Amino acid sequence: MKCTSYKYCVCRLDKKYWKSINEELKDRGYKNIKALVPTVKILRKSKNGKNFYDELPLLFSYGFIKMPTEKAFNRQFLIKLKKEIPGILNWLRSTESMHPKKKKKRIDNAEDFDDFSMVATISKKEYKHYKTLSRNNQIFSADDIVNLKIGDYITLRSYPFDGIGAVVNGINLVTKMVTVTIYPENGSLAIQIPIDNVLYSIYQDYDEDKLSCLSNNTIDVNSIPEGYPDEVINQKQY
């Protein structure tokens, strides 16, 4: 029996509905298709000694849809899937062409010129790399952590400490907690807070509605370096 080959297709996610993609796929009868979205947890606020986190896609507005290879190369199927699944906004288009030597032409029952383009994909190995980053929640670089030193005067981030000045007293890399003294000049108070309140994360200020790349500019996941994503290039979308 011949084994089915799969592709990891890159899609742009709807910020409101991306978490329900797999549920929608199941309800609509799609088989052998699954959304794979590596995520990170971002501290939003602390209240009554409890920390509240938001779960965001590791690659911001982008994730992967694992599907059989024959489906991944079917333009009409991809368009249909995008229409029926609210969490999928667009497909990232590959810079390569299915038939490089053929010219663009109009075809029947198509929403666009047939330029023989393909959806952008990543390998299974690349996906496992992003999954590992997600599992480790690596939202801070090694340099960020190493450069944080006892005695540093810092400005705290995230509610309810956002904007408050503090002095670093201790750092626990195992628990990812930092001991700081706040209001050091006017009645000091020593507290322990998550490292998220101390180090800046590119995810904290992320707002999809303010991105300048919503129409034609998108992230090429193949160009993202080791660590966490921070480079953007121009691409096209279906």
Report on the architecture of this protein.
With 238 residues, the chain is an alpha+beta fold. It has two domains: 6-139 and 213-237, Alpha-Beta Plaits, CATH 3.30.70; 142-197, SH3 type barrels, CATH 2.30.30. Helix content is 16%, strand content 33%. The protein has helices at 21-27, 69-72, 75-84, 124-136, 142-146; strands at 6-13, 34-36, 39-47, 50-57, 62-68, 88-97, 117-119, 121-122, 153-155, 165-172, 177-182, 189-194, 217-218, 233-234, 236-237. The strands form four sheets. Strands 1, 2, 5, 6, 7, 8 and 15 form a seven-stranded antiparallel beta sheet that branches. Strands 9-10-11-12 form a four-stranded antiparallel beta sheet, with no helix packed on it. The radius of gyration is 22 Å and the shape is elongated. It starts with 5 loop residues before the first strand and ends with a strand. Residues 109-114, 212-219 and 223-236 have low confidence and may be disordered.
Task: List descriptors.
single chain, 238 residues, alpha+beta, Alpha-Beta Plaits, SH3 type barrels, 2 domains, 7-stranded antiparallel β-sheet, 4-stranded antiparallel β-sheet, 5 helices, 16% helix, 33% strand
